[in-house]
Design a protein that fits this description.
8 helices; 10 strands; 33% helix; alpha/beta
């Protein structure tokens, strides 16, 4: 995958040179290029200007963005504009982006964008219902979430298939050595070696956690017959405990 990032602060992306994303670049699975679009600004290196019609704040000018993208060697890129008004980024969108060969991220600053910039864009995306000082942190988060889904980046495909949100449910509890740590013991079922019982326990735990913390996820989740029965049992237990 090739990723190009338009930003006024390329140095902010140093974390992407480390850990899993950094190793993916070393392996040749990923190429990330940073483009400081201030270098392409025609008007005394100014990338912002006052909005026509008046108003608060400054807008990112179209010219530096257009000229920077013109210089990027990309055949059919997915162009992502980091914008608080855009689609909220989630795991399903990360999985969608992981299927692409070329991505371009535009990190904005100031009050907003010249509307004409959006003619270059395929997706307007937000990290959530809050406002950051710029798009860099959001872009880093989206790149990290996407890159780890590329085949061979994590080594084993199953490494991400059981993640929270990948299956549609929150992930079940996990444990490692020692068996007994400060009086807290690993659940016996995980020590049993009985794979079917372990599978059922993990599924039940995922359902419980999702019901407790993110019940909204069930709105878009297609329960299997087994999951539906487990969830009914969990809800009955919960009601009895609340009585």
């Amino acid at each position: 995958m090739k990723i190009d990032i338009l930003t006024l602060f390329p140095e902010m992306f140093a974390p992407l040179e480390h850990s899993i994303v950094g190793k993916a670049q070393e392996k040749g699975l990923l190429e990330i290029n940073y483009h400081n679009f201030r270098e392409n600004a025609e008007k005394a290196r100014h990338v912002d200007d006052e909005p026509y019609g008046g108003g608060q704040g400054m807008l990112l000018r179209a010219q530096p963005i257009f000229d920077t993208i013109d210089k990027i060697d990309a055949k059919n890129p997915r162009v992502i504009l980091l914008d608080p008004a855009g689609r909220t980024f989630d795991q399903s969108f990360a999985e969608e982006l992981a299927q692409e060969d070329e991505l371009i991220f535009i990190c904005g600053h100031y009050e907003g964008y010249d509307e004409r910039i959006k003619t270059l864009v395929t997706d307007e995306v937000s990290l959530g219902d809050f406002v950051l000082t710029g798009g860099e942190l959001a872009a880093m988060t989206m790149v990290d979430a996407t890159v780890r889904l590329i085949p061979e980046v994590l080594g084993k495909e199953a490494s991400h298939q059981d993640d929270s949100f990948s299956s549609g449910l929150l992930e079940y509890p996990q444990y490692t050595r020692p068996y007994d740590y400060r009086g807290m013991k690993v659940p016996d079922v995980l020590m049993s070696g009985h794979h079917e019982n372990i599978r059922k326990w993990r599924l039940e735990q995922s359902l419980r956690k999702t019901l407790e913390r993110r019940p909204d996820l069930f709105n878009d989740y297609d329960l299997s017959d087994e999951e539906a029965e487990m969830l009914r049992t969990i809800k009955v237990e919960k009601e009895e405990n609340n009585d």
